[in-house]
Amino acid sequence: MTNNVEIRKLTSMNDLRKMQEVEEAVWQMTPNPVHQTYTALNHGGVILGAFDGQEMVGFLYSFAGFDGKQVYLCSHMLGIKPCYRKDGLGERMKLKQAEVAQELGYTIITWTFDPLESLNAYLNLHKLRATGAFYKKDHYGSMNDELNEGLPTDRIQIEWDINMASPAKKITFDENKLMIDVTENGVPKSKLEIFNPIDDGWFVAVPDNFQFVKKRDINLAKEWRQKTREAFQLLFNNGFIANDFIRNHSKEHSYYYFTKK
Q1: Within-domain flag for 69
Q2: Which Pfam families match (predicted)?
């Protein structure tokens, strides 16, 4: 289905009003004001729409950022209607974003994502070859949309050097370096005592479908958040980055792979 979807830059106020409709449909919350997105668009921002014929089925909203040292593109929101979320549309939109960003002179794109959302982790770290650079505890505070309600909004911040894409390397999984394991009942098992900051190549397990876990057992979801937070903070604070993500199709969980910067 998504092969017929066209991805193009949004340029008009009418385009941005259509984007609001998609945003509201995806998150069931008040969308960004058009005057704000239009201002971002005209001051270094990149805003894309995905169209199936005349219908907008997805959008990507990013704006210019500066940290006191370098200019970068801050990718704030990627929203796709549910029936269009497979077949690689998200990846296509990110690659189009990188293409447009390069034309504008950007070299770095950054964004945040929920580390327990495995599909996003696989796209960001494995397919796009970006890296997870920082961990942000409860980054947005309390949020009431369907995806975030009831849980702290922890995030990993991605840094994507769009001029330095590298092919994925073969990773040998090592159970002796698994800092978060999973019991037979799907409960996270912390093994932080094995961590040695001198060693390289650590793994952290996460659920394949965190939203399913959350709907079935909110307390289990909170336990996943807390235990993985402890592992992620320990790794990031000791100079490691999230370098890849391994899908485990035979089980209900997958793995982050951390290396030294």
Answers
A1: yes
A2: Acetyltransf_1 (PF00583)
Question: Which residues in the chain belong to E strands, given as ranges?
Answer: 6-9, 46-52, 55-66, 71-80, 108-113, 131-136, 155-161, 178-182, 188-190, 202-207, 240-246, 253-260
- What would the pLDDT profile of 195-221 be if each residue is shown by its tens digit? 999 999 999 999 999 989 999 999 999
Amino acid at the residue 5: V
Letter string b/e over residues 117-144, b meaning 16 or more CB atoms within 10 A of that residue's CB:
bbbbbbbbbbebbbbbebbeeebeeebe
Residue 201 tokens, joined: 């190549």
Whether 13 and 97 share a structural domain: yes
| Per-residue tokens: 114 | 């929920």
Q: Cα–Cα distance between 79 and 90 in angstroms, integer?
A: 9
State pLDDT tens for residues 12-33: 999 999 999 999 998 888 899 9
**Calculated CA dihedral for residues 65, 68, 71, 74, nearest 10 degrees:** -30
Does residue 39 sit in the same domain as residue 117? Answer: yes
Q: What is the pTM of this model?
A: 0.90
* Cα angle value 63/81/8 (rounded, 5°): 45
On whether the CB atoms of residues 5 and 22 are closer than 8 A, the answer is no
Query: Does any domain span residue 133?
Result: yes
Range of the domain at 252: 175-260
Distance between CA 110 and CA 73 in Å, rounded?
6
Q: Which amino acid is at 249?
A: H
